[in-house]
Amino acid sequence: MTVDQRQSDILDWLNRELGYIVSDFSAASADASFRRYFRAATNHGTFVVMDAPPEKENCQAFVDSAQALESLGVHTPNIVAKDLDQGFIVLEDLGTRTYLEELKQNPNSLYSDAIDALIKIQTGKARKDKWSPMHYDSQKLTEEMSLFSQWFVNKHLGRSIDEPSLAVWLHIQEFLAQACLEQPQVWVHRDYHSRNLMITKDNSPGVIDFQDMVVGAIGYDLASIFKDCYIEWPRQQQQLWLEEYRVRAIAELSLPEFSLDTLTRWVDLAGLQRHLKVLGIFCRLNYRDGKDNYLNDLPLVAKYVLEVLEIYPELKAFKNHFKGHIEAALQEINNLHDYG
Q1: Are 246 and 257 a contacting pair, CB within 8 Å?
Q2: In angstroms, what CA-CA distances link 105 with 109, 153, 221, 262?
Q3: Beta bridge partners of residue 41, listed in sequence order
């Protein structure tokens, strides 16, 4: 088979350093970063091999996060072997059954398991050992939202933000960052959604793509999973799952009592920060990285943004200035579907 140089290096490392005889080596998945994953069938079993170029990815963060989550009882793939200098990690193979592929058949049971795992992750904030994720501070939250103006508005729509709209944009970034910081702070996976949760035989779900964890808003991962960028649920159904989470979180995280309305606001505002960022990220993946399939997911993300803008009076100015930009993108995609 034809392979690139890093694939050749991986195969050489598996054989020379680990003594693995590889009978089959194929792409397992690729994510929105520079990481790639391969499934390797060997004389010692089948594994997933992560290829994370060290000049572009923080392999140590992956290892630290995996070990911390495992200590909390979260099912992350066991690290079998690693060479961080080269950016190679051999992982337990959690299989191919993602939540996204099976949620429609049994959502309540799967989400109940996902809530279990999420609460385990969130208990990490109480850990007293030497390792902890970085804080999701105001600077980081604001930097992420700048992707919306840079890649979605400027690059994707080809529009510039005029001076009155710029003032509104700067204000909404500050407002949303503060809204996230005012929430209870917990460990945040940052991409806790249906493509990163695997259905496993034991201790399901298996959780992947956790290396960018932070300490941040309690509503963030809840927005990631219930306002998933790849599968949509009615808001009424989201509320039922949020109520299940609320009851369990108050008991298991030792949090002061909070209402479903309060939790909903937390999720909506943390979700707005996330979805503005994601609109920019999906466009950047298309224009910079050549991954045009993410543009297919823009309409759902935009829908989440528009929905929240209609609910909260504090967002009125932003809605007045930017709703048209978002609707223009939706119309553009609809036209492509109509005439494609």
Answers
A1: no
A2: 10, 37, 22, 30
A3: 24, 46
Same domain membership, residue 153 and residue 43:
no
User: Which CATH number is 138's domain given?
Assistant: 3.90.1200.10
DSSP string, 126-163: G--SS--PEE--HHHHHHHHHHIIIIIIIIIS-----H
Q: Both tokens of residue 308?
A: 């929240």
Specify which residues 40 forms β-bridges with: 25, 47
Q: Which two tokens stand for residue 38?
A: 């391969």
Residue 160 domain boundaries: 99-339
- Residue 181 vs residues 139, 141, 218, 244: alpha-carbon distances, Å: 11, 10, 10, 24
Together in a domain, 157 and 215: yes
In terms of Cα–Cα distance, which of 168, 161, 164, 158 is closest to 329?
158
pLDDT digits (tens, 9 = 90+) for 99-139: 999 999 999 999 999 999 999 999 998 877 778 899 999 99
Examine the domain organization and report whether 159 and 245 are in the same domain: yes
Same domain? For 255 and 311 the reply is yes
Any residues with CB less than 8 A from the CB of 235 and at least 6 apart, and which?
A: 307
Count up the domains in the chain and report the number. Answer: 2
What pLDDT band is residue 253 in, cutting at 50, 70 and 90?
A: very high
- If you average pLDDT over residues 93-101, what whole number do you get? 95
Q: Determine the Cα–Cα distance for residues 58 and 212; give it in Å rounded to an integer.
A: 9
Q: Which two tokens stand for residue 120?
A: 């385990």
Specify the pairing of strand 22-30 against strand 36-42: antiparallel
Domain end, chosen from 33, 60, 92, is at 92
Nearest-angstrom CA–CA distance, 44 and 206 = 22
- Identify the burial level of 164 via C-beta atoms within 10 angstroms of its C-beta, where 0-12 means exposed, 13-18 middle and 19 or more buried: exposed
Question: Could you tell me if 278 and 129 are in contact, meaning their C-beta atoms sit under 8 angstroms apart?
Answer: no
Whether residues 130 and 18 share a domain: the answer is no
* The model scores a pTM over 0.85: yes
> Which pairs count as long-range contacts for 2-8, CB under 8 Å and 24+ apart, including other chains?
6/51, 6/53, 7/38, 7/51
d(CA 187, CA 216) in angstroms, rounded, equals 6
Same domain, residue pair 87 and 129: no
